[in-house]
Amino acid sequence: MWQGLEEFIQVVEQGSFTNAAKIMDVSTSHISRQINQLEKRLGTILIKRTTRKISLTDAGRQYFISLKNIRQELIEATDHLQGTQQVPKGLIRLTGAGDFVADQVAPILAQFMKKYPEVEIEINFSGRNVNLIEEGFDLAIRFGRMQDSSLIARPLTTRFMSLVATPDYLEQHGIPKVPEDLLHHNCLMAITNRWRFNINDEIKEIKVHGNWRSNHAGAILQACFSDLGIAHLAKDLVQKYIDNKQLVYVLDDYQVSDNATWLVYPRKDLIPHRVRLLIDFLLAHF
Fold it and tell me: Which residues form the HTH lysR-type domain (predicted)?
């Protein structure tokens, strides 16, 4: 009975099948199929389709108004029910990669569970860009510049990045003076081989090369400690090794400062109460 209703509402609100698909993070063909099946069940055409635009039939316009009213009443009823629940309960699935999630997010999640012991937390440490809706995740922790997305992204904190190497590596291979000098060094890479720098107040990318690549910061650190090359890592991760002289900053004056850490979740009207509580809890702590 409910199949196709949200797709129909989104198509009308967004003005096209393509925009609705982006908002819902599904394919355009999925949207079209759901609405076709909805029209079949209702026995009437809701949307007039042309190559350039869509428009509602009279039946479609009345149906849209009715659905909007029903959806709003459902939201209000759910909010009322969740607001009266004294103890939130149920599973929250979160995905994110890296030591930041393990070392800084996980302890806050543990505090949250102490406060709400009937909530269950599942953390997935996947390095790939997980599709939250299709794979059933409530939240994600992501890093760097956010691309245009149908997801809501809330900034948690700014993570300052750094280039580091051992004194022995720099003594043997020389100290880079400008970012372009990295082309003559072995660079220990994580997610990308394009490192960003602030050069004369302009952000530029340098495509680096190296024989060590890993999506785990600890593995990159070990390679760096072994004098294999220059690593690109978060400052909060390497600062203690700078302090005890195991590592040295490289090209620190050229580092950019826009590497935000984001709390990301799908655009949904009906976010479970327990998830809303966790969102507020994380934002408050950071």
Answer: 1-57
CA–chain centroid gap for 34, Å, is 27
CA distances from 113 to 116, 120, 186, 274, 284 (A): 5, 8, 44, 11, 15
Q: What is the CATH T-level fold of the domain 161-254, as seen in this structure?
A: D-Maltodextrin-Binding Protein; domain 2 (3.40.190)
Token pair, residue 10, equals: 């989104």
Strands (E), the chain: 47-49, 54-56, 90-96, 119-124, 139-143, 151-158, 161-165, 187-189, 194-199, 202-207, 212-213, 230-234, 248-250, 260-266
CATH (one of 3.30.70.1660, 1.50.10.10, 1.10.10.10, 1.10.357.10) for 5-84:
1.10.10.10
- Residues 10 and 17: their CA atoms lie apart, in Å, by 8
**pLDDT tens-digit series, residues 38-57:** 999 999 999 988 767 788 99
State pLDDT tens for residues 99-129. Answer: 788 888 999 999 999 999 999 999 988 767 7
Distance CA 243, CA 118 (A): 42
- Out of 3.90.79.10, 3.40.50.10490, 3.40.190.10, 3.40.710.10, select the CATH number for domain 90-156+260-285: 3.40.190.10
Strand partners, 94: 123, 139
The C-alpha atoms of residue 213 and residue 223 are separated, in whole angstroms, by 10
Give the integer Cα–Cα distance in Å for 177 and 202: 17
In single-letter form, the type of residue at position 170 comes to L
Task: Report the number of secondary-structure helices (H) and strands (E) in the chain.
Answer: 11, 14
